[in-house]
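stuck on whats below:

***
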Amino acid sequence: MTSTSSDSTVSGLFSSSTSASAKRQALRAGLDSGTLQRWPGAFSPLVAKLIADIGFEGVYVSGAVLAADLGLPDIGLTTLSEVAARGGSIARATELPTLVDADTGFGEPMSAARTVATLEDAGLAGCHLEDQVNPKRCGHLDGKDVVPAGDMVKRLGAAVAARRDSDFVICARTDARAIEGLDAAIDRAKAYADAGADLIFTEALRDLGEFEQFRKAVDVPLLANMTEFGKSDLLTAEQLTSVGYNAVIYPVTTLRIAMGAVERGLRDIDAQGTQSGLIDHMQHRSRLYELLRYEDYNDFDSDLFDFTIEGAPQ
């Protein structure tokens, strides 16, 4: 039987053509590559497609962004099913590995174990779990608190034990820097690595010196969070590379860019009575169609239905 459509046309139209297992291997290889892995946050599959098209190494799904997109604050109100559904749809949109924010694991250690299994099923390449109390708060706000390190070790132990694909990356985030100090955060990071964490994410480090100090003290891959309006200096990729970091996320950047543009545009329409003055600031329809591979879908559809039934009137 001969296919009516080329494999190149169909590949990746309806889901990623790269398996979840291969994406997880790519994520691990990237962390070991010596090249800083840059993972902008995506709040939708379309944003993920743009991240891939521009040439970044991976995609990040922020819990704060997912909550905000649902009209909720980042205080632990989202559910595992919501995170898995959105994370999975974003992961399927590109050939890149996707790391997702799994908050505190949505409950006790057994819940963290179920979280890992569910996110594996959804096609994610990895997730991070944090040591805040449940319900959590945004990592750059005051008033948050952390569980005892031993409780987080149990949370991580359960998550690691539930992992079926050994390449699924389990990242441990600690929020202890702003609460217990830098030395305590370093001690926690070492304990979390001993518990099986593949990657360490230390929230709210202040400046390049603290990032460098953390790198010298912790001998596992490290992730930096470059979020705007927070407690950390906004360091460049070159600066983070210079102190030996393995990955960086820009978790809320795309949402903030988009919402800033949306608000300015809506206010302009309200004031001017037309959107005509905004045209030059919009993504053109042709660019949107390019990202969505409109022509490939059209070709695929035409190939499928370009036939006649024998004996039918012409």
